[in-house]
């Protein structure tokens, strides 16, 4: 019987414990007329949990560490000569062994592996039997314990609540731990990169050309990792051009929607604007690449600017700005609506016009919230990938000319990691360093923006 | 609501007043289909403090907001009838609401200073109306307004601090100072003390008394003692009707309408 089979038995046992404990508790309630502290369903649930959880825990732990235990025991049983050396040889040996055992490949190439297969199978089934038996035993003990303890005044409800709390806490931990894991792996690969390329060169260098020579006699592929043109391109597109488009448009549409639009118009326009946020970024990407970028180039040519690139910062940035509009507008909408109506009335009663009221009272009062929204939007824009990959180009130019092609951190990461890549070259590793910088910058922006927004919210509670 | 309102009892002293700053004739206010104020006519005298009293929901605040057209900011509100300021119909299309509100200032129930410095709160009105010609002019306006509002000595050393950092009573006096900074002719006060403690209330009442004569003042209050203390004219509203209008002393000592008497003696409301 496989581990899955044992798990099924455990589940059946747990359900049986549920039913048994529930019925027993219900019988208490009827027999002596005593008031049950918890309803029978809680007694049942408590028994279910006690039967299932320890056994499940054992099985999960085993499924994580079991493979290694079986493997090392198998290797220990092999004759000295047939044993693979440590490191890569051991890994390939075990890989082949597992593939044969799982049936992925029909037969082993290595005779030593072939010899190890029956040993592996036997060790594995011994362990499975042991762990499976233990799990069933645990389930029996847990269920039985709960059954014996179900008395009228047993506080099953309290216990079940406590278990529920723990489960929810674990669920939230998963997301947090995953984030930590991602950060750690980024950090690890970045350190690897910085052991090859000096961090100073990376952060202050102005030449980006990540092609490294694979063979020593290659020419022209020296590898330069000065990331300044990338950072500049990211800021130029995401924080300058996109914001030049998004801040005025987003803010003005928020002002219109909160202050001028009739309720009927607002009911229609606001969701329409929010649809913009639901357009997949790849759609914006080809809109930028196929429609906006050629238009920008033709326009530049028509006003006599020679050599306008067909992939321009302006095209990518302005489309990204359009994408960000609903972001800014909904944040600004929220903060404008949060300004007490008394403030608006006070200003109008002084004889201020609606636009004076907006300019001098409402926007200043909502400013922290608006600034917070803009910062969040910037952090979103500089992390945005699809539009820049498709429309901004790959040339790492350090230029302030919006008609030229620039590239961004995200676009470079995509380029560095797509296709066949060796995973120990500085070129590939540089993607992790870029990712780390991007992560740190957006993290700081988000923390700061949320702090600004929160402080503002408190001011009007 | 009754189809034909009971006749408003207007005391003789007020019938022949020829010193009216504002006059309202047959003013009705609707919120959607609901009639909140029903054909009210009243004269507001420029030398006195006029109090509007009555139980909650009687339409007194709604009616007050007609005098500077603040009901315009509520989409569903509709005003009928005629209100004049110095003989000019304020609901006339030629009347500029910006200028009207500069002439008829308003103080609200809850202090609502702008989230700006004390100085900027006062300078706000003069600035949007282009009243001050220079910085020293503005300084003078700020000082005068704060002095008249009895706040100057308390805040003169911290004009740069935020207006919202003041206490509730100080904030309300700041709002009054803000209203008088544009030198209005009428000041409307909508329950200006209902959010204040008794000591702050006393200070604001004292201030209202000092401002009497310089500005025509109309105050809405649900506090009858307050009306008795600060006003010389009292109008009693009930269910959207103006029931009785007369000298404050008369209203409180010798009311002529039954509904006024019942309210004053605490039988309802």
Terminal CA distance of chain A: 62 Å
Q: Work out the strand percent of chain A.
A: under 5%
Structural class of chain A, please? Answer: mainly alpha
Task: Provide the structure class of chain B.
Answer: alpha/beta
Domain module tally of chain B? 1
Please report the first level of CATH classification, the CATH class of chain B.
Answer: Alpha Beta
CATH architecture of chain B: 3-Layer(aba) Sandwich
CATH class of the largest domain in chain A: Mainly Alpha
Instruction: Supply the number of helical segments of chain B.
Output: 11
> Taking Cα atoms only, what radius of gyration of chain A do you get, to the nearest Å?
32 Å
Question: What is the number of strand segments of chain A?
Answer: 2
SSE order of chain B in H/E notation?
EHEEEHEEHEHHHHEHEHEEHH
The whole-number mean of residue pLDDT values of chain A reads 86
First-residue to last-residue Cα separation of chain B = 17 Å
Proportion of residues in β-strands of chain B? 25-35%
Explain the overall architecture:
Chain A: Belongs to the binding-protein-dependent transport system permease family. CysTW subfamily. Chain A: It is a multi-pass membrane protein. Chain A: This is Phosphate transport system permease protein. The complex is a heterodimer of chains A (about 450) and B (about 270). Chain A has helices spanning about 5-30, 40-75, 90-100, 110-150, 155-195, 200-205, 230-260, 265-280, 280-300, 315-340, 340-350, 355-385, 385-390, 410-415, 425-460, and strands at about 210, 220-225. Chain A is mainly alpha-helical and about 450 residues long. Chain A has two domains: about 5-155, no CATH class; about 225-460, MetI-like (MetI-like fold), CATH 1.10.3720. In chain A, strands 1-2 form a two-stranded antiparallel sheet. In chain A, helix 2 runs antiparallel to helix 4 and helix 3 (about 90-100) packs across helix 4 (about 110-150). The mean pLDDT of chain A is about 85. With about 270 residues, chain B is of the alpha/beta class. In chain B, the strands form two sheets. A seven-stranded mixed sheet of chain B has the order 1-11-10-4-9-8-7. A four-stranded antiparallel sheet of chain B has the order 3-2-5-6. Chain B starts with 8 loop residues before the first strand and ends in a 5-residue tail after the last helix. The mean pLDDT of chain B is about 90. Chains A and B meet through helix 11 and helix 12 of A and helix 3, helix 4 and helix 7 of B.
